[in-house]
Amino acid sequence: MRSLSDLVSSRGASPALASFLAWAVQNRLNLLVVGGTGSGKTTLLNMLASEIPHDQRVITIEDAAELQFDHPHCVTLEARAAGHEGPGCITIRDLLRNALRMRPDRIMIGECRGGEALDLLQALNTGHGGSMSTIHANSPREALGRLEVLTLLAGLDLPVDAVRGQIASAFQLVVQTRRFEDGSRKVCCVSELTGLEGGRYRMQDLFQLDMDSGITPQDYRSCLSTPSCIETTIGVVKRPWIEHFQNDRFVHEQQSSHANAAGDDRRMGSSLLAADLGQLAKVAA
């Protein structure tokens, strides 16, 4: 899968959710993609990157080059381990510091694993809107707590309140992915981070996968209140905000997916019926 249309056609997200994520990328909101191992974080990051306008300069920083998307102004930086004699090590922190001198419009870090989280927060709070990264966590709120720990691994004696303030102002959206029992991968939650309240992160779930709709849920619940990022970007919205993202771009992909699934079910039913008839014929003979 290489685009959000592929995500919708594979039932990994609803058309409205995909349309909202595309709008968020195009309007330069900072996104943090979270999930467990094998949940599709990097795949989703590739899909989101495909929505970046081609007139913007993108710099990707990774341990191993996994981000592969079609963009004419993309610079790929890859970390390097030390040689047998010791020197020659190039860390993600080194690459991130040098990337800031390359006039990036957006910065994408494949995954935050250590002290580079502090440098990423500083970059996001100094004018590099539309940047993205991933992190291992089981929920959006747990991801922010883990990001605090990674920031403290930078070795600076920073107060936790200051770190939380930097995180709250750096990211606007936290997107969670999950791998289900049947092997499918879906976006199960999109949360908005709007600041701090009483020392805790103030968050609201914009999209939440209905986990009570079976082993492989398909339906999403959306919040009623208008997200702050929409009011900041568009202004006052007079109609329900979700209606702005119920367009025809991804609806066709979902309809095609449902039609293909229905065709597969019919073919499977026909095959089972034929097998039953054959078995009955043998018994009668």
Question: What key attributes describe this structure?
Answer:
285 residues; alpha/beta; Rossmann fold; 2 domains; nine-stranded mixed β-sheet; globular
Instruction: Provide the spatial order of strands within the biggest beta sheet.
Output: 3-2-4-5-1-6-7-8-9
CATH class of the largest domain: Alpha Beta
Percent of sequence in beta strands: 15-25%
CATH architecture tag of the largest domain:
3-Layer(aba) Sandwich
- According to CATH, the homologous superfamily of the largest domain is P-loop containing nucleotide triphosphate hydrolases
What is this structure's SSE topology?
Layout: H1 4-9, H2 15-26, E1 31-35, H3 41-49, E2 58-62, E3 74-78, H4 92-99, E4 106-109, H5 116-124, E5 132-136, H6 140-152, H7 160-170, E6 173-179, E7 185-197, E8 200-209, E9 220-222, H8 228-233, H9 248-284
Parallel strand pairs: 1-5, 1-6, 2-3, 2-4, 4-5
Antiparallel strand pairs: 6-7, 7-8, 8-9
